[in-house]
Amino acid sequence: MAEEKKAPRKLSIIASKGSLDMAYPPLILANAARMSGVEVNVFFTFWGLDIITKKKQKHLHVAVVGNPNMHPWVHIPTILGVIPGMSYLASWMMRGEIAKLDFPPVDEFVQLIQDSGGHVYGCKMSMDMMKLTEKDLVDGAKVLGAMEFIDMADGGQIIFV
Amino acid sequence: MANVLKDIKFDAEGFMEDAKAWNEEVAKAIAEREGITLSPRHWVVLNYCRKEYETKGEAPTLRNITKNTDVNTKELYELFPAGPGKLAAKVAGLKKPTGCI
Questions:
Q1: CB of A99 within 8 Å of any CB in chain B?
Q2: Which site from A19, A46, B12, B19 is most exposed, i.e. has the minimal number of CB atoms within 10 Å?
Q3: Which of B94, B44, B83 shows the shortest CA–CA distance to B66?
Q4: Does the predicted TM-score (pTM) go above 0.80?
Q5: What letter does residue A137 receive in the DSSP assignment?
Q6: What's the gap in Å between the CA of B50 and the closest CA on chain A?
Q7: B85 CB contacts (<8 Å, ≥6 apart)?
Q8: Which residues of A touch B74 (CB under 8 A)?
Q9: pLDDT (tens digit, 9 = 90+) per residue, B83-96?
Q10: Residue among B62, B72, B100 minimizing CB distance to A28
């Protein structure tokens, strides 16, 4: 189509949660944006940092206590959620369901976003708090302060997860 | 180029209405309109998209493309820099993909 040239779209995503279920929405959105040719910056902060921390990203868990949304599989009543291993079981099931839909595991998903030209950043303050350095993050991830992120997000849309 | 696309119907976003009206000349013309010059590597992607369409009735996801061809994610974005999610299907004459990955 002979559309007039619009300024390229830009999306900034803030990923603040590190549970298995909350890791996927920012990753899926970031990837979808790249597939549509939208520039993407993802800022991982607080527990969201686990998603791009090498030692943690393969071991994210879904919470079974205080999580009323386990219904696609089995509802686990809070009282049973305290049984040791319950979170591992639920996380294992969820990983299986995600794989069935052909979505990659978290570490591969982050790599996919980077390969597609998306940029990933670790929040400086959170990293200081958790005693992490850039070396603890996946290759290619950069450390960024909140103000720099705001500058970077200028002129685009922001999603907070 | 204009002649090749003259009798072909497109939806508002530029995806072909009828995938059966597609052929190599049409692909070249759509690609040109999107600012892409087709190389043999583009054809690896386009032929795979068409093959998937023939068997499954819709455009494959990008993950499907990178898993089942030798084109990896980085190359796919180099081939279709304005967004392979839509462009690969568009040039292959298919509808906008519904997959999220």
A1: no
A2: B12
A3: B44
A4: yes
A5: B
A6: 19
A7: A32, A34, A35, A36, A37, B62, B97
A8: 115-116
A9: 999 999 999 999 99
A10: B100
Catalytic residue among B37, B39, B40, B100: B100
CB distance A119 to A43 below 8 Å: no
- For residue B83, give every residue at least 6 positions away whose Cβ sits within 8 Å of its Cβ, in sequence order, or none: A34, A35, A36, A37, A38
Q: Which residues of B touch A36 (CB under 8 A)?
A: 83, 85-86
In this predicted structure, what is the pLDDT of residue A87? Answer: 84
Q: In the β-sheet with A10-15, what is the strand arrangement from edge to edge?
A: A142-144, A119-123, A39-44, A10-15, A157-160
* Pick from A97, A23, A15: nearest CA to A57: A23
B2: distance to nearest CA of chain A, Å? 12
Q: Residues A60-97: pLDDT tens digits?
A: 998 877 777 765 566 777 777 778 888 888 888 889 99
CB atoms A38 and B83 under 8 Å: yes
Q: What is the ipTM of this complex?
A: 0.90
